[in-house]
Amino acid sequence: MDNELNQICELVRKCGELIKNANRDELQIDSKAGHANFVTEYDKRVQDMLKAGLKEIAADVKFIGEEGEAQGFSDKGRFFIVDPIDGTTNFIKDYHMSCISVGLIEDGKGSKAVVYNPYLDEMFYAAKGLGAYCNGKRIHVSNQPLENGIVLFGTSPYNAELSEKSFETAYAYFKKALDIRRSGSAALDLCSIAAGRAELYFELILSPWDYAAGALIVEEAGGIVSDMDGNPIVYDRPCPVLARNMD
Ligand code: IPD
Ligand code: CA
Ligand code: CA
């Protein structure tokens, strides 16, 4: 494996220990803008640890993280876009469906990606042109059509105005597929598409840190990622995301 990617995986694995061994009496839950949008002491601690660790791995790469360091992206240069805990509500509820997501974006395109689920000890990673992997094994999207498929979706919970449309869209897909799932972690949903565990994932609005890593992992596993209209996704602002195994 690429040395830089290897180092990022090791760093992210250490951060995973922090999440898994969190002292549940000291989560220090605060609210952020939007409906049911929370941050805990652990989101902040993991982000700090990632920022320091990534600086040691690649000092020249700029850092963007969900917790208060979300600005400054440009489609020129190299940026880490980081979600310290994707699935914070799950983390608060001890639901064991959260991950750490680190995407390296170069000149506006996904270049390297790591998503780690500490509860299952599943390390997903990809590098542009080199394929996608989970725990050392190459992964591929499913070859099944939607009618034999599972559809994943996110409810865009912090944007209440999108709820109705989200559920209408989910209902339309539900009628075309075997069934629907909602995990609570966009990055893990994207990895599920990449690993061939489900056929389609959509969410009507996400932030770049939710998909900066997962999108490349899907593409390197042979899948397709776009906005809901089939246009390329962007990394400088929130964006709808549609990921699927085939068109
Ligand atoms: C959220 C999760 C969730 C998705 C939301 C995201 P967070 O991220 O990925 O599955 O539906 O849109 O914002 O806030 O837990 O990092
Ligand atoms: Ca997130
Ligand atoms: Ca988060």
Strand content: 25-35%
Give every kind of bound small molecule, once each.
D-MYO-inositol-1-phosphate, calcium ion
In whole angstroms, the N-to-C terminal distance is 30 Å
Major sheet summary line: 7 strands, mixed
Mean pLDDT: 96
Number of strands: 14
How are helices and strands ordered from N to C?
HEEHEEHEEEEEEHEHEHHEE
What percentage of residues falls in helices of 4 or more residues?
Answer: 25-40%
> What is the strand arrangement across the widest sheet?
3-4-5-6-7-8-9
CA-based gyration radius: 17 Å
CA-based shape: globular
Poorly predicted regions are: none
The tally of helices reads: 7
Structural class: alpha+beta
Describe this structure in words.
There is one protein chain. Helix 1 packs antiparallel against helix 2 and helix 5 packs parallel to helix 7. With 247 residues, this protein is of the alpha+beta class. Strand 6 and strand 7 form a beta hairpin. The protein has seven helices and 14 strands. The strands form three sheets. Strands 3-4-5-6-7-8-9 form a seven-stranded mixed sheet, with helices on both faces. A five-stranded mixed sheet has the order 11-10-12-14-13, sandwiched between helices. A two-stranded antiparallel sheet has the order 1-2. The site of D-MYO-inositol-1-phosphate has 15 residues, from strand 4, helix 3 and strand 12.
